[in-house]
């Protein structure tokens, strides 16, 4: 499948195949002689495992419930972002950040350029992953459907690992091209990145995924905190997700 090629390219971005490491797991596909490399199991939404046992209607209902749990943390994350704004030294960025938060809270979907203007804020105190408040880290963990009931050092490690792997997948998928993905793979890719794609058309999902990849691949490793927050900021008010 196309996603298998994406995972393989994640370990060969340098031009040569790399050996399996802690960020990747080996899985064999039926009917294939060669192994396919996949990301850690925790990157797969657990609810997708029921697709062979539940009807399509049951799956959609469960996905909606699952995503509603994810959205409960969004207001808390926006509140944490607003609290961090006074600590940003650049007054112009402060003003833009305030406008961005207000836009999201008022139901407007921000553009990727709105976020890219702020990327320098997410690579230093107080918004890089290493300096986020404990409340902020816990809220982000809940948004990623990861348990927040762990020491903060472990929560930061898991969030950093999650975004690092996701960034690698994004770069590989950008090289492969979303046109190689099936409709279900596109929907799954969107869901993994924070968008509730269960009720969106394939075309909407492809447009959103292309914008996400454009955004993600423009970020540097030091700006992974912005990628993490984008799973909330770029999905909360997307057309078709408010129902």
TrEMBL record:
Pfam families: LETM1_RBD. GO terms for molecular function: ribosome binding. One of its GO terms (biological process) is intracellular monoatomic cation homeostasis. It is a single-pass membrane protein. Keywords: Membrane, Mitochondrion, Mitochondrion inner membrane, Transmembrane, Transmembrane helix. InterPro entries: LETM1-like_RBD (IPR033122), LETM1/MDM38-like (IPR044202). It is found in: Mitochondrion inner membrane. GO terms for cellular component: mitochondrial inner membrane. Residues 69-243 form the Letm1 RBD domain. The keyword Secreted does not apply. It comes from the Eukaryota. This is LETM1 domain containing 1. The lineage of its organism: Eukaryota, Metazoa, Chordata, Craniata, Vertebrata.
